[in-house]
Request: fold
Amino acid sequence: MPGQDPRTDAELVAALNAGEPSAFEALYLRHRDWVFRVARRYAPPGEDPADITHEVFLTLLRKFPGFRLTARLTTYLFPIARHTALARARARQVEARLTPLTGRAGAVSGPGMDGPSPELAAAVDTLPPGQREVLLMRAVDEMTLEEIALALAIPLGTVKSRLHLALQTLRSDARARRYFENFG
Amino acid sequence: MDRPDSDIPDGLKPALRRLDGPVAVWPGFDARGLATARLAAARRRRMLIRGASLAAAAGLALAVIIGPWRERGARGDLNGDGAVDMVDALVLARAVDESKAQRSWDFTGDGAVDRADVDRLALGAVRLSGGGL
Reply:
């Protein structure tokens, strides 16, 4: 199955550059969920994140042959997904903004989990968009600070300060304080 | 800054991930995405091939247009085949007989285009073996 292709992203990119179509399928299956999450985060109301996800991969495909991978692939996929979603918001003439976590359909709860916390969602949603964006990229997308800086095309120092301020705000917010109780 | 920036509390990360929710796509989602990609790739390949064909055709057309033009610049190459030879002398002879010679074909420099120019061209062609006057 292409999704279980043992090759690294760099090897798949090289294979795709050499004209191997199955390498694209492997990249797609490997990163589809990740791209979908980002698309969902920025998708304007009425836009299907699935459509945005497909468009992101089409955009990626158009970069071949000749695409050079010099960082993690997600660092390239993130701005494409973000830009695609925000462009759709502009096309619909609706405000381009981060989708709130509050009331997010499908938030996971299960045995052993403390359940999706509406309080935490509300606290995160009150963060300024720039801080919320960086926090989610770091915590949910598991991007490094350097990758976030690259993906958002902002200085590393800005990423650090936004994350720091986001955490500071959450720590002092009663709705999120419990996540910091045994921390530092 | 009072702590390393990457220090997000252990409990906060999974909580945020759960809030972000799972990815649920409909059956056929991947098939549609990959089919669209295959279609786009095929279209792109066709465009690249068409582009390459167009470039080749354009190159050929330029070669046809510019090549002889450059060669026709050689003095005495009246038929524009890239060589100054007896054929050019024949072209000139016919042009002189039919009074259709051009002023620029005055190879003797005497102000007239006549049999003397045909002889000069023919002599040059023989001597220079296709090189020109």
User: Anything to note?
Assistant: Residues 115-184 of chain A form a domain with the Arc Repressor Mutant, subunit A fold (CATH 1.10.10.10).
